[in-house]
Write a structure and sequence with these properties.
Blueprint lengths: L17 E3 L4 E3 H10 L17 H19 L3 H5 L12 H4 L9 H22 L1 H22 L10 H18 L4 H16 L5 H20 L6 H26 L5
Antiparallel strand pairs: 1-2
Helix pairs in contact: 2-5, 5-6, 5-7, 6-7, 6-9, 6-10, 7-9, 8-9, 9-10
Amino acid sequence: MSYVRCQRCGRPACAQCQRPAAVGVQCVDCVAEQAAATPTPRTSFGGAVREGRPVVTWSLIGVCVVVFLLQYLLPGLTYQFGYAPVLTASEPWRMITSGFLHSPGLLLHILFNMYALWALGQTLEPALGRARFLAVYGLALIGGGVGVLWLSDPLVLVVGASGAIFGLFGALFVIQRRIGADTKGLLIVLAINAALGFFYTSISWQAHLGGLLTGALAAVPLVWAPRGPRRARVHWLGLAGVLVLLVALTLLRLALAPGLA
């Protein structure tokens, strides 16, 4: 029988259920209730504050690296999951799967993309929060596919995470503009990468453009939503609106180009 009572509720607490408090001890029920009532720390843009490494960023890198290795072991994987506009109507999921593939014969392709993802993720994931960061990345990935659908050769197969990564560049630009930071350096990086897409035919500037515009658009509700209890709702409604727009653009393109349907 325990003779120690919780300083908060006054109920007896056994040795296993006692938790040190500022004064005396508390029972596990009171500690849990107090923790649930404590507001979760939030970043400036509404994301939950997390300590440690950016988990989502490292997970995305890990998936891309594993898939890249599988492309060597299974040569047909690239063609089974890569994206070409002509496959949109029959296999629209390729817009997403192609973003985790890279050119098997070009190691620099995945190295550059993963370095850029790591660098951008170090800044954006802590600022936006894990869920919002992943949402922006996913939307930009789809947006890159939509850019390819509208602007690229229908028969050309496209792979790579660069569309999604350009979306992160777009989101970072919107954030820097919102907080009044200098964007000259970022614009120079974007200009150089955009120019490479026109000089090297193996680089899909269409995916870069689609991802960039989508990432910037997705960041708008995240950084401009008014503070308050409804801010999270505005965030997710805004992101859902971007997804609806991408779906609408895809359907419109298929309707305008019967050969793709």
